[in-house]
Amino acid sequence: MSNRISADPLLAVFARVGFRKASMDDLAKATGVSRQALYNRFGSKPELAEWAMKSLIEGSLDAALRSLDNPGATLVARLFAALDAWVGQHMAMLRASPYGIEVAVMVAPEPGETVRAAERKLVAAMASAIRISGPGAAVSRAGSMAQALCWTAKGLVHAAPDHASFRRELELIVGALLAR
Predict the structure, then answer these.
(1) Is 103 exposed, middle or buried (0-12, 13-18, 19+ CB in 10 A)?
(2) Rounded distance between C-alpha atoms, residue 138 and residue 145, angstroms
(3) How far is it, in rounded angstroms, from Cα 122 to Cα 32?
(4) Of 59, 66, 87, 84, which is closest to residue 174 (Cα–Cα)?
(5) Which residues lie closer than 8 Å to 149 by C-beta, 6 or more apart?
(6) Quick count: other Cβ atoms within 10 Å of Cβ 19?
(7) Helix, strand, coil shares of the chain as percentages rounded to 5?
(8) Of all residues in the chain, what percent carry a pLDDT higher than 70?
(9) Is this structure's pTM higher than 0.85?
(10) CB atoms within 10 A of CB 92
(11) What is the sign of the dihedral through the CA atoms of 106, 110, 116 and 121?
């Protein structure tokens, strides 16, 4: 069943009303399945929330990796698109309500390792792309550059006033770093 349930409407409910106030009825309505079906598949609201967060992380990583694997785009465009897919696209959800940060922190009991593992895969793929397509000076620093870009993108999520500003700033930073 989890193949037919999308994490997005679940996370939207959590963002709108908070984890504690989100009822299984609210979550069932958002997904278009019965409350009992959710309990049968996931067992509890925390388990459902953990699945939704892991699905979000996996989906973001998949989109980021697809962005890196676009031979028709420049390296700057591929790195920029990957970082936007990884973190930038989530700015609206995080800022849409006072519960946005709660979604990121409380929805999954231990999202940290899931996020860290996915981020390690992304950084490794970005470093590989830099080694293959980057300017000569970047090749020896590919791993450090990839990690710095990932940290920069996460920082911009909090510093930029909106997604458009995030995208503008990130594109400038990626371009400047690779121009060296």
Answers:
(1) buried
(2) 8
(3) 33
(4) 84
(5) 79, 83, 126, 173, 174, 177
(6) 18
(7) 80, 0, 20
(8) 88
(9) no
(10) 12
(11) negative
Comparing 51-55, 97-101, 117-121, 157-161, the range with the smallest average pLDDT is 97-101
What ranges make up the beta strands (E) of the chain?
Answer: none
Quickly list DSSP for 86-100.
Answer: HTGGGHHHHHSSTTH
Q: Which residue has the tokens 């400038």?
A: 172
**CA–centroid distance for 146 within its chain:** 16
- Specify the pLDDT at position 118: 92
DSSP state of 34: -
What is residue 74's DSSP assignment?
-
Structure tokens of 58?
């996996």
Determine whether 36 is exposed, middle or buried from the number of CB atoms within 10 Å of its CB (0-12, 13-18, 19+).
exposed
CA angle 74, 75, 81 (to 5 degrees): 90
Enter the DSSP assignment of 21.
T
Nearest partner of 7 among 27, 35, 37, judged by Cα: 27
d(C-alpha 177, C-alpha 7), whole Å: 34
